[in-house]
Amino acid sequence: MSKAAATEQKKMITDIFVEGARKGWAIGTSSTIPNVMMAFIIIKALTITGALDMLSSVFGPVMGVVGLPGEGAAVLMSAIMSMGGAVGVTVGLLSEGLLQARDIAILAPAIYLMGSTIQYAGRILGVIGTEARYYPVLFGICILNAFMAMFVMNILV
Amino acid sequence: MSAHDDQKVTLGSYVALAFAVVFFSGLLKSTEWYGVFDFTTLNGAFGKLLNGISTGAEGVVESTATTYRGTGGSGALDGFLFALGLVPTCMFALGMINVLEHYGALRAARKLLTPLLRPLMGVPGTVGLALIGSLQSTDVGAGMTKDLADNDELTDKEKNTFTAFQFSGGALIVNFFSSGAILFTLTDAAGQSVPGSIGLAVAIMFIFKVVGANIMRFYLNFASKKTETEAETRLEARNV
């Protein structure tokens, strides 16, 4: 066993937990809070301008297939940009009473399956060196995955 | 995680993995003693604050309670206060993940998954480590995949199939447990708590990551057949 591995073994379980919790604090303060706060501002802006109503009536029929109100589309659109942001939008809509508890369970896996894809196109596809002609297929698979997951969750919960 | 992770998978690793599955599944969610093995039970709840007092019918004093966030807020201020309440869940989840990872839960998962990779996705067992790495960090997963492809351990088709697995739900474990897990601790305006569980969501996401990889695999099969047929047609046209 290497020296590094030996010291790793000696760590107390409490130290390991605290180390992880510290990571959680870092993510919470540097990602969750700013993302959720921004999402609440966007929702407020969309509500005041009436854009949210418009969005929900346009996407209502599509989202209805997976048992969601039209507002669910706002969550999915923000997911493409950022997973954390989409969670912010979700909780914002929940606290406005526009999404119900069950809607959240349906949306949760979908947010991640199609989440942060714009960012990950660079960080995954770019690094691996995926040929450009496969990009649309890969984006399509993410969106399809999200819709299939919502369909299944709609049956399960 | 390095490309050559030679740490042993022990019985303890499997125990850690089994514990992780039970802990986040919500199966033992309860106020009984066994609730100690459930994430949402241990995560607990914020206390309530008095919100208002009114005199109801027949002079009975009635009170309403609210969380520390209060009621009727909106915009940036409400968003900040709400988000602050999400931080402890995120800290607890990542603390637990760190402990479970330390005791080998992910190594055990890798060991169990490796022989299944070929039948499940048509990729070789050698991607096992990259797969587990990609659940924690997109950069680790992508870097290791590139290495495997550069060393000819993956064919082009296998590389693209495996890329589809990573691209949908990138860095699933870290991303989901740092923000999505929170969703399963919420209640809506009607007081209903979110149904399902963290474990169910993780299982669904993992299944569809595999499904996505297979869609890519079939697409690549179809595309290569099409190219072959086109090439043959061209060849025949020339021979005529």
TrEMBL record, chain A:
Positions in coiled-coil regions: none
Keywords: Membrane, Transmembrane, Transmembrane helix
Membrane-spanning parts: 72-94, 106-128, 134-156
One of the record's GO cellular component terms: plasma membrane
InterPro entries tied to this protein: Gate_dom (IPR011642), SpmB (IPR052549)
Residue stretches making up the Nucleoside transporter/FeoB GTPase Gate domain: 32-125
A Pfam match: Gate
Protein name, UniProt field: Nucleoside transporter/FeoB GTPase Gate domain-containing protein
